[in-house]
Amino acid sequence: MSRTDAILKRLSGLHPKLIDLSLDRMLPLLQKLGNPQDRLPPTIHVAGTNAKGSTIAYLRAFLEAAGKTVHVYNSPHLVRFNERIRLASKLVDTRTLNRALEEVEKINAGEGITFFEVTTVTAFKLFAETPADFLLLETGMGGTYDTTNVVKHPLGTIITPVDYDHQGFLGRTIAEIAANKAGILKRGAKSVMGIQRDEGRKVLERSAHRLGIAPLWQGEDFHGVSEDGRLVYTDEEGMLDLPPPALLGPHQFDNAALAIAAARHFGLPVGEKDFAEGLRRVTWPARMQPIRSGTLRDLLPAGHELWLDGGHNTHGAAALARTIAAFDQARPRPLVLIMGMMNTRDPGGFLTAFSPFTPEVLALTIPGEANAHPAAHIFARARDIGFAARPMRSIVSALKAAAEIPDARVLICGSLYLAGDVLAKNGTPPD
């Protein structure tokens, strides 16, 4: 076990629950550290159900193309915890991370606090200590009581599309979930909203109005569409004719447009040239990522495609299905889904989005995850929908089975935890 893993294991044992939404444990610890959350660079706070990470990836690419340094906070990580914290545009190095974790652990002195809370406090400490031009801050879950929601005066807030997710913690209806996400809105901070369901938009509108905020709304105040393979963006300032996003899928045009709107609305120091360069350079692992080499890729014949995506809810499945449909327009192939999923998700709802493609489903139990659906459960749900399906013992056996299907398009999906396991075993972890 590495030193980092040993520290993280100790921190994970400080509270009996993995998730316990509250700010009551964090705020005293932050105060002991001198309130680093009040000493951050200009901060853009991002909440929503899907597209948070992609939106932040675009903003980082735009700012870095303009020569700015950027802190980033994302979760979860795929392979190494270091992926969660980017300091001045570089992933935190292990020595710096370990030092900060141990300092926070010492000051916390064994008090009860969840893993995400204590590691978020550590991130704030590092962000306050390290100079940078901007901080891009992603919520972990929800908004109101999310551990990141201690920044009093963000430069701006973004709420990406709100859909069903984490209903056991955030609410059973879209309106309840939207009300929770709206907790990141702050009086005096501008806001940009992604495309929303009607019931979610009504809640977000009321929340913004109470705070005196007039948000920009995607699909109304700004638009981004694909025209002849390019991204055409329009808002009240005019039109931008830009290259397509390097991230694949029709939904990435929406995500890129949301980030462009935020950059312009918040007054970030980026111009059209920076937008174009950022769109070409943007990366975001395990989001419709092509796997072209590596230990696992070598198990498939040269003519097969292999894709990896961490999408894990019905909204994400719908975006993936649109991407597969676009691929099929260019070159139809039989679709094979290698799928693992945590037991807080509905495999049937996820798989239904792929009904037009009649895929074969190779079901996995995510290795090392006690709360993963057994492969047999995912297999049964796939069979209920009418898909050909098989439970598999491992990612290796699943890929060997996929290799037997001629000219297949293989998509590994259903969980970021599965995606991380695949990248590690393939020998291609994120930089």
From TrEMBL:
Q: Which NCBIfam families match?
A: folC
Q: Name one GO cellular component term.
A: cytoplasm
Q: Which cofactor does it need?
A: Mg(2+)
PROSITE patterns membership? FOLYLPOLYGLU_SYNT_2
Query: Which Gene Ontology BP annotations are present?
Result: tetrahydrofolate biosynthetic process
Instruction: Determine if Electron transport is one of this entry's keywords.
Output: no
Keyword flag Metal-binding: yes
- Fetch the PANTHER family from UniProt: DIHYDROFOLATE SYNTHETASE-RELATED, FOLYLPOLYGLUTAMATE SYNTHASE-RELATED
Q: Which InterPro entries would you find in this protein's record? A: Folylpolyglutamate_synth, Folylpolyglutamate_synth_CS, Mur-like_cat_sf, Mur_ligase_C_dom_sf, Mur_ligase_cen
Family membership: Belongs to the folylpolyglutamate synthase family.
Q: Name one GO molecular function term.
A: metal ion binding
Q: What is its EC number?
A: 6.3.2.17
* Substrates-to-products reaction catalysed: (6S)-5,6,7,8-tetrahydrofolyl-(gamma-L-Glu)(n) + L-glutamate + ATP = (6S)-5,6,7,8-tetrahydrofolyl-(gamma-L-Glu)(n+1) + ADP + phosphate + H(+)
- Write the protein's name: tetrahydrofolate synthase
Sorted alphabetically, the keyword list is:
ATP-binding, Ligase, Magnesium, Metal-binding, Nucleotide-binding
The segment(s) forming the Mur ligase central domain are 46-263
